[in-house]
């Protein structure tokens, strides 16, 4: 990540920090039963681009499926999801952990995961 304009976001208490190479140009707003309840907006990055420093997270895998959702053990903020399947190289970051001014220019894609599975 050398030479890029790194940005860092944190959970509410600061026990988890996530550093990415740049603000996202696109964000996903998912309405599935889980993301809707979490109230998150996802930005996707290559794993190699992201640094996560944590003093502890708990995980939840919805039905033991595709990803582990991480949340801070201290303040409870959902921080990111990590894929369970070997070979996947992308993870989701809860971009709400970052300064909102940094993401104002990003395009928000609404994903209908509660119904059609389509973006609109």
UniProtKB/TrEMBL annotation:
Protein name as catalogued: GFA family protein
Domain CENP-V/GFA: residue ranges: 7-112
InterPro entries referenced in this protein's UniProt entry, alphabetically: CENP-V-like, CENP-V/GFA, Mss4-like_sf
Protein family per UniProt: Belongs to the Gfa family.
Key words, A-Z: Metal-binding, Zinc
Regions that span the bilayer: none
GO molecular function annotation: carbon-sulfur lyase activity; metal ion binding
Gene3D superfamilies named among the record's database cross-references: 2.170.150.70
Pfam families: GFA (PF04828)
Database matches in SUPFAM superfamilies: Mss4-like
Lineage: Bacteria, Pseudomonadati, Pseudomonadota, Alphaproteobacteria, Hyphomicrobiales
Keyword Metal-binding: yes
């Amino acid at each position: 990540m050398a030479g890029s304009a790194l940005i860092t976001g944190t959970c509410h208490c600061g026990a988890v920090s996530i550093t990415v190479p740049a603000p996202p140009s696109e964000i996903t707003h998912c309405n599935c039963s889980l993301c809707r309840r979490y109230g998150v907006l996802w930005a996707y990055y290559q794993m190699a681009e992201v640094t996560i420093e944590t003093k502890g997270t708990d995980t939840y895998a919805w039905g033991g499926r595709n990803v582990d959702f991480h949340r801070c053990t201290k303040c409870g903020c959902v921080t990111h999801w990590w894929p369970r399947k070997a070979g996947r190289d992308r993870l989701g970051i809860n971009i709400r952990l970052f300064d909102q001014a940094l993401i104002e220019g990003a395009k928000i894609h609404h994903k209908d995961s509660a119904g059609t599975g389509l973006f609109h």
